[in-house]
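To: structure desk
From: M.T.
Subject: fold request, one chain
Message: Could you run this one when you get a chance? Sequence is below, nothing fancy, just the single chain.
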Amino acid sequence: MARTKKLIDIDEPQVPPAPLMYLNGEVVHAHEAKLSVIDHGFLYGDGVFEGIRAYGGRVWKLDEHVARLYKSLKVILVDLPMTPQEMRDTIRMILRRNHLTDAYIRVTVSRGLGLGLDPRGVSNPTVAIMPSKLSLYPEEMYEKGLNVVTVSTRIPTADAWEVRVKSTGKYLNNIMAKFEANRMGAGEGLMLNSAGCVAEATGDNVFIVVGGKLLTPPGSAGILEGITRAAVMEIATAAGYGVEERNLTLFDLYTADEAFLTGTAAEMIPMVRLDDRKIGNGKPGPITNKLIRMFRARTASDGVSIED
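Reply: Done. C-alpha cells follow.
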C-alpha cells in the first residue's frame, strides 16, 4: 500500500529545531536528552542553577554567574568534578555549537542519582547546559512598563534556608506566585516576606526611585541578590545616582517616583502600576529609561567572548 506524505497545514504551529545542549559530558539535541527518574534534582529539587545571557557573541557576567554557581554547590555539599574554568569553557562551546551570539543559557546541576532523601547514597552530579532564545517580555512592555500585583504567596524566611543559594527546589513558591499573577492578568507578581516587607518579584529584583535615589530591598529581606541587580547598582552609582539597600513596604512602592525590575532574563523593565495604583505618572520614568539605555550599552560591549 502506497504511503501518503503528510501535508503541513500552514496554520499548524511549527516546532523549531531543538538546540544542542551539554548533558553529563555529551552534546545532544535537547529534545533527545534523557534524565534518569532517580535523579535527585527530578525527585526532590536537589540542585542549583544559573541563568546567563549572551549578547553579540559575548557572555555577560560569565565569571560572576559561575562563581555564584560554585558557591551554591559548596553550600549544599555537592562536589562537582568539573572545574569553574571547564564550566566557563563548556558554556562558550555550547553557544558556538548552536551558532548563537544572543541567547539565554540555563545551567543546572543536581546532586546526582539516588533514590531516597539521604544524600550519602547519591553520586555522580548531573550537569545540564542548555541555550535558548528566551524572551521573557515583549518589547512593548519595556516601552510602556509592567502592571504588577502583590501576591499572597510569601518568600520563605531566611532562617528556613540560605536565600543566596539559587536552588531548584525553592522556586516552587515563585511558580505558585506566578500562577496568582497570571490569574489576575498582571505582567508580574510582587512577593513580600514574612514581616510584610517587599522582597522580590517572582523572578526579578525590585528597585524604586525616590527623589533621584535608588532604593532596593537588602539581602536580609529574603531576596536572591541578583547579578543583574548588582550590575544596575554599579551603573547607577557610576552615573552619580545614590543607591541604598533598605527594607521597603508597599507604601514605599505605591508612593515612589519610579520603579523597575531587574533579572537575567528580564534585564531591566519598568514597573508602572502596582495593585491598580499608578507609580509616578504611570509611565516609565526618566531615570529608569536612562539606566535601561546605559545597561543595554554595557551589555553590548562587555562580557567574555564565546570564541576560543
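Reply (cont.): The CA atoms of residues 64 and 254 lie 33 Å apart. Let me know if you need anything else for the meeting.
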